Amino acid sequence: MKTYKITEKSGEGAHGYVYRGLEIGTNKVVALKKIFVNIEAGIPKNTLREICSLRVLKARNIVRLFDVTSMGSSVVLVMEYLPCNLQEVLKKTDLNLSQIKTYSKMLLKGVEFMHKNHIMHRDIKPANLMISPKKVLKIADFGLARIYNELDSARQYSHQVATRWYRAPELLYGARNYTPSVDIWSVGCIIAEMINNAPLFPGETDIEQLAIVLSTLGSPTDENWPDLKELPDYNKISFVSSPSKPWMLILPSADASTMDLLRKIIIYNSKKRLSAKQCLAHHFFVTGPIPAKSDSMPDPNDYKSDSTEFDPKDFDEIIEQINKI
């Protein structure tokens, strides 16, 4: 990896570490996502999915992949450097409605571009929504992304996707045949979280997650969820019948246009959820207050995760630890 120089460690994930680095010659700041590769198993599927997705998805609101290189037995993804994510912003800041609309608009533009290119993310959550130094929200972490072909309606997918709090109810019932509308459900949960300053459906287990959703939206009916009885796990568990909560209680601080948008996204029937394009055309974005301009958005440098200076010896220690597993 002679083209890049590592300057500090900025994070770690399930498959490796993320470093802040510089491109030698230009001094451009980059993120270096180092993924350990098992020689026998090959490159992890999640890594291949991320590489393939990001080579296709080149848009303002999606993280950019600059290069793919190697370091010893590891694959290194060279990406644009993004100081923080939305989860970190939400922990420290109560966003106003103008700021929420700006983040929501950027998120939906990224989702619209993904879906237009037949890719569903399947793990949209605040931690995977990065904020650039110029305050632009960008969708990242495409390890669970899959190509979606609407002409192949019989195609089966894993239902064990999406972080629990943002997982669509059809996935909680074991759906193997679903559409990019699972991403739209996640978007709705995130917008609601920004409004309420707290997760909308914070379940500790899959069963509790489903129970919270049902107690909030009310027990499903043949009218509002016609395909429910066809889902694999429908008969595995039953819940006490409950009415839906009024949206004024679900989102006590939201105005009428906000509630109208979310009640068209956070619904059981995935076929009736608004698409990202339809969401962007909703009056939520033109009803006052209007989306905030860049100079009124949070500065991502104020939320930057703690990082550590990089010592080249770290790699030897990391490899040694991995070999012991």
Write up this protein.
This protein has 325 residues and is an alpha+beta fold. Helices cover 30% and strands 17% of the residues. It has helices at 45-56, 86-92, 97-116, 169-172, 181-196, 206-217, 247-250, 256-262, 276-280, 313-324, and strands spanning 4-12, 16-23, 28-36, 65-71, 74-80, 84-85, 119-120, 129-131, 137-139, 146-147, 308-309. It has a 6-stranded antiparallel beta sheet, with helices on one face. Strands 6-8-9 form a 3-stranded antiparallel beta sheet. Strands 7-10 form a two-stranded antiparallel ribbon. Helix 3 (97-116) packs antiparallel against helix 5 (181-196). The radius of gyration is 21 Å and the shape is globular. The chain starts with a strand and ends with a helix. The model is unreliable at 307-325 (pLDDT under 50). Keywords: ATP-binding, Kinase, Nucleotide-binding, Serine/threonine-protein kinase, Transferase. One of its GO terms (cellular component) is nucleus. This is Cyclin-dependent kinase 20. One of its GO terms (molecular function) is ATP binding.
Shape: globular
* Rg of Cα set: 21 Å
Helicity, as a percent range: 25-40%
What is the fold-level CATH name, i.e. the topology of the largest domain?
Transferase(Phosphotransferase), domain 1
* Terminal CA distance: 25 Å
Q: What proportion of the residues form beta strands (DSSP E)?
A: 15-25%
Q: SSE order, as H and E? A: EEEHEEEHHEEEEHHHHHHEH
CATH architecture verdict of the largest domain? Orthogonal Bundle
